[in-house]
Design brief:
The complex is a heterodimer of chains A (67) and B (536). Chain A is 49% helix and 0% strand. Chain A is mainly alpha-helical. The longest helix of chain A is centred in the C-terminal third of the chain and has 24 residues. Chain A is elongated. In chain B, helix 7 packs across helix 18 and helix 7 packs antiparallel against helix 19. The N and C termini of chain B lie far apart (66 Å). Chain B has 536 residues and is mainly alpha-helical. Chain B is built from 22 helices and two strands. In chain B, 68% of the residues lie in helices and 1% in strands. In chain B, strands 1-2 form a two-stranded antiparallel ribbon. Chain B has a single domain, classed as Sodium/glucose cotransporter (Up-down Bundle). The chains are: A mainly alpha (67), B mainly alpha (536). The interface between A and B is large, with 40 and 48 residues. Chain A: This is DUF3311 domain-containing protein. Chain A: InterPro entries: DUF3311. Chain A: Keywords: Membrane, Transmembrane, Transmembrane helix.
Chain lengths: 67, 536
């Protein structure tokens, strides 16, 4: 029965990481160091996209229901 | 002869090809009968991972986004980059929320977010408020898509002054209206494929070709830095300052929360086949965020290239940059990408708004037991009305008004969060508390927006979404996103209202859902038709 299925899992807490980190401006609101000509402010926030992808992918894999 | 002839020809050809696809889409994954909202409005609720990726990507990252975000960086600098953290944090949040909405909608055959509120809280009034909020917030959004097309037309010199100048815009929207009417959600789903391929192509070329011509990324950032250091305005700059950091963060968070409350996002999600499709897409959709980040930086490239907007319309910055940098034939492709990029979200938004009207106003207050075919035909006609409204908006009223309204729309849609998003997790709130919270959040939000002046655009009111805390009598220059404050107010009132309603023993609505409904998946038992007439 579908009613018995629970989608609770501790892995979901991991999703907080890519939500909280991009909101901490002190991490990235600076000019140096540059990367490929990009100031920190820009390249680090672009790098957070990868962090988001990695986390959601991991959580998806760990919470997938096996048939 | 127009110096933009090559561009116009390529633009027109691509536009016509895509319009043809829109009409053919009715036969794509052909159902036995298109006359129901599940088919016309949700494409059969059967889209797999790839189609969903193109559809939601094409839906959320609109032509307006592609034109307005770089324009924001061009004008204000770092503050405009909020679009990047915004689209990063939205997916983990959605991962948790939208799969529950998908499941409960799957079990109960729900079509709109207001449908869910109706079943969950047993309150037609609350559902009506959610539906109206959705429609009002979506309308100016559709109008903004036209601004995207208009910016391109202006650059090609086909939209000048006089009545005839509006003709290309009207023709484009008539075509859009016609194939949406005929094919429903299948049309934007099919077109999204072409749109995204074109956009990815254009941006990939742009971020390699343009920096190479401008002396590299270092030079581009230096140019932006020099520009903002030279201006006296306090809130621009190529980094954030002490006063706008909180605004940056609350705007990113508020926008992320608002994004999937918009009816058109819900439509995109509900059209997918199962929970795995949605989860997988939450990992795959950030590819568009990367694209958006690069597109945003087009604003800085425009600074380095010395682009001047047409008139005062900063939205022409990106089209102007393409026009200056690319050979004519490629500019034509780039413009087509923006133009077609406007069609996909405009179609989905009008479908979503039409579904809200049909399900939560027509069905609730006009005809309580419509057949599937009646529902579909009401939605089809409403989608036409919505689009005519959007065109009139742009033609008759100052486009700036649509931009202001869209800003207000974001604050408004956020006020449905307690009912829709929190409602997916808890039934603790009382319907009276949620209604009171909505009223408070909406009122507070509008008041705050009204009080925001913007000398740069000559606005005494509705001058932006950055609410200065000084307006509350605090001695500070810090600004916060008005929608975020309004949401906090909404939540506080909803909690207090719930406590009061409980204490007064006010009758609460029945909950038509069971806990298992929120985790059900494809193949699990469905309830054929929810009994909306049975509860009050």
């Amino acid at each position: 029965m579908p009613d018995d299925k629970s989608d609770r899992s501790p892995w979901y807490w991991l999703l907080l990481v890519p939500v909280v980190i991009p909101l901490m401006t002190f991490l990235y609101n600076a000019d140096e160091p540059h990367l490929f000509g990009f100031p920190l402010f820009y390249w680090l926030q672009i790098a957070f996209i990868a962090l988001g992808v990695a986390t959601t992918t991991l959580v998806y894999r760990m919470t997938r229901r096996r048939p | 002869m127009s110096p933009h002839l090559t561009e116009i020809v390529i633009f027109t050809v691509l536009f016509v090809v895509v319009s043809g696809m829109g009409f053919v889409a009715a036969r794509w994954r052909r159902p036995t009968d298109l006359a129901s909202l599940h088919e016309w409005g949700l494409g059969g609720r059967n889209f797999g991972s790839w189609i969903t990726w193109f559809l939601i990507g094409g839906d959320l990252y609109t032509a307006y986004t592609f034109v307005a975000v770089p324009a924001l960086l061009f004008g204000a600098g770092a503050a405009g980059f909020f679009a990047v953290p915004y689209t990063v944090i939205t997916y983990p949040i959605v991962f948790l929320i939208m799969i529950r909405l998908w499941s409960v909608s799957h079990v109960h055959r729900l079509v709109t977010p207001a449908d869910f509120v109706r079943v969950r809280f047993g309150s037609p009034t609350l559902a009506l408020l959610v539906a109206i909020t959705g429609i009002v917030a979506t309308m100016p959004y559709i109008a903004l898509q036209l601004i995207g097309i208009e910016a391109v037309l202006k650059t090609m010199g086909v939209a000048g002054s006089g009545f005839l100048s509006d003709l290309p815009l009207i023709v484009a929207f008539v075509i859009l209206a016609a194939y949406t009417y005929q094919s429903g959600l299948r049309a934007p789903a099919l077109i999204a494929f072409v749109k995204d391929v074109l956009i990815y192509l254009v941006i990939l070329v742009a971020i390699i070709y343009i920096p190479a011509r401008l002396g590299g990324w270092g030079a581009i950032f230096d140019g932006a830095k020099a520009k903002f250091e030279a201006t006296p305005a306090p809130n621009d700059g190529y980094l954030l300052n002490a006063n706008n950091q909180l605004q940056y963060v609350t705007l990113a968070l508020g926008s992320a929360l608002a994004l999937f409350l918009y009816p058109h996002s819900v439509t995109g999600v509900l059209a997918s086949k199962n929970r795995d499709v949605i989860k997988r897409n939450m990992s795959a959709l950030p590819a568009y965020s990367l694209l958006l980040a690069l597109i945003a930086l087009l604003g800085y490239m425009a600074i380095s290239a010395g682009v001047k907007p047409i008139g005062k319309d900063v939205n022409t910055v990106v089209p102007q940059l393409f026009d200056q940098m690319f050979p004519d034939w490629f500019t034509g492709i780039a413009f087509a990408a923006v133009g077609i990029g406007a069609l996909v979200p405009a179609a989905i938004m009008s479908i979503a708004a039409a579904n809200l009207f049909t399900r939560n106003i027509y069905r609730e207050y006009v005809n309580r037991t419509p057949t599937d075919a009646q529902e579909a035909s009401v939605s089809k006609v409403t989608s036409l009305v919505v689009k005519v409204g959007a065109v009139l908006f742009i033609l008759l009223i100052d486009p700036q008004f649509s931009i202001d309204l869209q800003l207000i729309g974001g604050v408004m849609i956020l006020q449905t969060l307690p009912s829709v998003a929190l409602g997916l997790f808890t039934r603790w709130f009382h319907r009276a508390g949620l209604i009171a919270g909505w009223v408070a959040g909406m009122g507070g939000g509008l008041l705050m927006l009204y009080s925001i002046a913007n000398p740069a655009t000559n606005h005494a009111h509705f001058g932006g979404s950055a609410f200065p805390l000084a307006n509350l009598g605090l001695d500070t220059k810090i600004t916060v996103y008005a929608g975020f404050l309004a949401l906090l107010l909404n939540l506080v009132v909803a909690v207090l209202g719930t406590l009061v309603a409980r204490a007064a023993k006010a009758p609460d609505g029945p909950d038509g859902t069971r806990p298992g409904d929120y985790t059900a998946d494809e193949g699990d038992q469905r309830i054929k038709e929810i009994d909306l007439a049975g509860s009050t």
